[in-house]
Amino acid sequence: MKAIWLLAGLLFCLGAAAQSARFGSRMISLGDDVERVRDVAGAPETIDAVDPDNPALSVWTYHRKNRVIELWIADGKVVRVDDRKADAD
After folding, report:
1. Contact of 57 with 36, CB cutoff 8 Å
2. Domain residue spans of the chain
3. 42 contacts 84 by C-beta, under 8 angstroms
4. CA count, 13 A, side-chain hemisphere, 18
5. What confidence tens digit (pLDDT) does each residue in 8-17 have?
6. Does residue 32 surpass a pLDDT of 80?
7. Which of the chain's ends, N or C, has fewer CB atoms near its CB within 10 Å?
8. Is the torsion defined by CA of 40, 46, 50, 55 positive or negative?
9. Residue (of 55, 46, 50) closest to 76 by Cα position
């Protein structure tokens, strides 16, 4: 359990992660639980386990217009939000 929070804290400190992401007129913020995420954002396009041996830490990915939003989930809570422009294909 401590390892999950340590990893989540390290990931949060790396880079300039956003503290929230907009889904229409509603927001997802750090600390929100997965029930709220699903209520606001719906089902993610993908859910990727950061460590396959420990599914308590995962990345939920959403594609909105020209944005990619990644929500890092640890123990059922949002611990990191990455919101960036989608790559042009």
Report:
1. no
2. 2-85
3. no
4. 14
5. 555 555 445 5
6. yes
7. C
8. positive
9. 55
Tell me the pTM. Answer: 0.77
Q: What per-residue confidence (pLDDT) applies to 15?
A: 47
Amino acid at 2: K
Distance from the Cα of residue 41 to its chain's centroid: 11
Q: Which architecture does CATH list for 2-85? A: 2-Layer Sandwich (3.30)
Amino acid, single-letter form, for residue 71 = L
Largest Cα span, the chain = 40
Is 1 a residue whose pLDDT tops 80?
Answer: no
Residue 8: partners with Cβ closer than 8 Å, 6 or more residues away = 57, 72, 74, 79, 80
Q: Cβ distance 2 to 55 under 8 Å?
A: no
